[in-house]
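Appendix B. Chain record.
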Amino acid sequence: MRPSACRLDGVATLARSLESAGPRARRTLVATGLPESCDLPEAFDAFFVSTATARGDEALAAKAARSEIAMLASICEHGDEVTRALVELPPPKRAPAMFDRCGFGRLGLADREAWLRSGATSGMPFVALHWLREQGVPERDAKPIADAMWLRARAVWGSPGQRIPVLGGTLPPVPLHAIEVAVTPEEVRVAGASVLELAKGALPEGEAGEDATKTLRDALLAELEASPQDEETPMVLVVDERIPIATLLRVDAMMREAGPSAGIVAQTEPLAFGLIAFETTEHRSLGTPALEIDAKGFELTPPSGGAKQRIGDGAQTPYDFELLAARAEERAGSGDAPTAVVVRPDHDVSAGVLLNALHRLRGERCSDDPTRCWFEQIQVQTGTDHRRLAAKAGLLGLMAKIEPEEGLIGIGAGLGDEDVWGGLAGGELGDGVGGLLGAGDDFGSLGGADWGGGGGGGGTGSSGKKRPRVRQSKPTVKGSLPKDTIRRIVRLHISEVRHCYNNALSKEPDLEGKIMLSFVIGTSGRVASAKVKSNTLGNEDVGECLVKVAKRWTFPEPAGDGIVVVNYPFTFTPG
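Structure tokens predicted for this chain:
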């Protein structure tokens, strides 16, 4: 029997320490304690270094991947053949392929569903379990160490000490390499750097609020600009459950003005994260019940108005989420139940209460099984407080300018090219203008004792199909105007670009491709000329329409009396 590379008493002490430590402490303890107890192969060192932070380092990650691949041959069922194939895969695809091709299920660390749901991208926890067993480490000690390494392999979000809302069930995974915007009661952090100080979770008002808005927006744009990806990198919002809803909505609106936003990060179990989405509206939709949230708890207003009904006793436990979920499930099971609900929270209510309420209304299985959603659409009504904030807060500011007949503005949470909750809300401004409430029939005949009771609804539903998508890639700019300024202004006109595409879709439903729009910004800031530089759509009408609308755009005057030449790519997909 060959000698062990580990001091078994030291490993046993480490394992006991890990079992009594919290999740974040376990991530640190295993990285410091295991090298002290064992002479580790290089792959372990590379893994610990590359997982030292939530975002990591690309060079270190590449080194860790090479070291890991070298060790996999010893435990994969098909050895070198599998490892050669894995080298060709990007890290996000490598983990599931390793699980399947290496037969990780037999090692007893985790089942496939749990592994993929965790978002882990490294097989080192399985390698570690196998290697420790080879060194003669007892199972009772090897398993806690491998579990702790699994925690390090997951994406970790939020600032130290931040209380991230914990939700039940499963949630869509957080995109890898997303830019984190963390909001604590003390500050706002962008990609780990503090950019704003807060007073008990509240953003400044008045002139100081304008300065804060500019500071945060500049930080977001700078981080997007520094992103190495060809496509715009999504941002995720990580809010402390204690901050007020007003802050959540203001920061979220600024994020969506700056670039693509994938949603709000929540925990489903210790160090397992997912995304939750929400929409906003200024008005309660006709024939839709409303759930009001205040300091006393939940209060329901039926679709037809009438007497409000409290959910829960409103005394010692004002927010009875279990009862709320039970009532939602009960109403969803009745044939005449409404398909949508408007949530009207007081703006001093905490973000954790709001996110938990939204999640319970939809049901814990909604994300992975749409047929089990208690409500198909949920909207957060902004109310008068947010009208006051609208003038200073990005997308919320645009809400105040929308004409009444245009209806609702959707603020959705897209995951890649799709929205987190089945395309319920637009990821870009304009997706939700007019007919936001898709994926359901009209709201007419909303009966029922509690949630129902209404007569004929307003008929605001649509077919439920995915909405056509228009995505912007990074433009090339020659001249004195900043690229982020140009992107921001083009984003404000994205509904015009979408209009050009939608007109063509009515004739060609499968129309898909890219258009590179080239335009020149003159000394006055107006677009002096525009043309289509390339077009893979195979439809000239869309390009001609883009040229026409671009000539109406106005930008800041370029410095030095010069002109600015812009090549702006758009990608169109029918949904």
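Further analysis of this model is presented in Appendix C.
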